Structure formats: C-alpha cells, structure tokens
Amino acid sequence: MASLLCVDIPNLRHLDKYTVEDRVHGDHGWISFNKTVLTENTVTHNKPDIILAEEKKNRITVVEVGVTSQENLEQVEVEKKHKYEALKKQMEHHKWNKNTEIRLIPYVMTCDGLVRRYHRNYRQELGVSDKMEDQLQRICLQQTYDFVMRELGMDPVIEEMEGGPHIAHATIN
Q1: Strand (E) or helix (H) holding 106
Q2: Is the pLDDT confidence value at 156 over 80?
Q3: DSSP for residue 94
Q4: According to a count of CB atoms within 10 Å of the terminal CB, is the N or C end of the chain lower?
Q5: Cβ–Cβ < 8 Å for 52, 4
Q6: Which residue in 60, 56, 52 sits closest to 20, CA to CA?
C-alpha cells in the first residue's frame, strides 16, 4: 500500500502540501479517497476515507482515519473498526472473485499524535513505514496547532508573515 500512497509525492517532508486526487490508478490497483460506494441495498456508512484495491494481492482494504482526544482514543478506534461492517458485506457480493479478501482497518491517533498498542499492527497491514508514520504524526500535530491558533483568532501563517506574536512551538522533522 505504501507504494500506492506515495505515487507522485516527490518528498515525504512536504506530504502535508500534497493534494490527494479522489482516485489514483497504479500498476497494481487503485486507491480512492472519500468516495461514496454504490451498493444494491441502502448502507448508512458508505463513504470511507480510503479504499485501496490491490489486484495482484486480490485484496480490497477500507481504511477509516480518525483523530481524537486521549480520553476517546479506544472508543473511536473500535467505532472506526466496525463502522463499515455493513458496507463490507455489500462489497463481498461484488468483489473481483470469490477469493477477494476485504479488510477494514482503522487508522486512529490523538490530536497530539498518540496511538494505541494495536496501531502498530494496523500500520504493518497497511505497509506504513516508520518514516511515513513520523510524517503523519507531524501533520497531525501541525493541523492541531493550526486549528487551535485559528480558534484563538490567531492565524499562524498570517501572524508569522506580519511579524506578530511569536509563540514557541516545536517542529518535528
């Protein structure tokens, strides 16, 4: 999966500046982002964050991403894990062949980048390297910082450009 995720990303340091197309095709399958899955029967949750189809591995992976507080981390991870069970059943009727594996994987962390112990297993299933995980956690921290600054009425980009108040913060590289 990691090779599909990194299509046309020249440098992982700038991952937060990369805009994601809603569907990208590669040599081994395709990946879609935030697309509604059409089903025969009505399914409440039919728009997962990421769907990865790996034709050579005969596998479809539904990834649900979540960022939450430390208090809700376990609950959110469990909810994300089971949120698309009905969709999975519908997808099983329309897979490439009877042997196609359909997986549901939650990818959840706190707003300050903390994860549960099961996260390592999910990362391995997805093929997310340590370097990519570091970048994802950095982006999560940066987005949290930006959100808090906006809520306080201080846009971090504008403040830096105008030479406004400087708030010390650590940058994780």
Answers
A1: strand 101-110
A2: no
A3: T
A4: C
A5: yes
A6: 52
The whole-angstrom separation of Cα 122 and Cα 142 is: 23
pLDDT value at residue 170: 38
Q: Determine contact, residues 139/173, Cβ cutoff 8 Å.
A: no
Phi, psi of 138 (to 5 degrees): -65, -45
Hey, what amino acid is at 33?
F
Task: Report the C-alpha gap between 68 and 85 in whole angstroms.
Answer: 21
pLDDT of residue 11: 55
pLDDT for res 75: 95
Identify the three-state secondary structure at position 25: strand
Number of CB atoms found within 10 A of residue 61's CB: 22
The region of weakest confidence among 10-14, 69-73, 138-142 is 10-14
Sheet of 101-110: strands edge to edge? 23-26, 29-33, 50-54, 59-68, 101-110
Tokens 């982006």, residue located: 139
Amino acid at 9: I
Q: Do 122 and 106 touch, CB atoms closer than 8 A? A: yes
Q: Phi-psi bin for 155: left (phi > 0), alpha (psi -120 to 50), beta?
A: beta
Q: Quick check: 56 and 68 in contact, CB under 8 A?
A: no
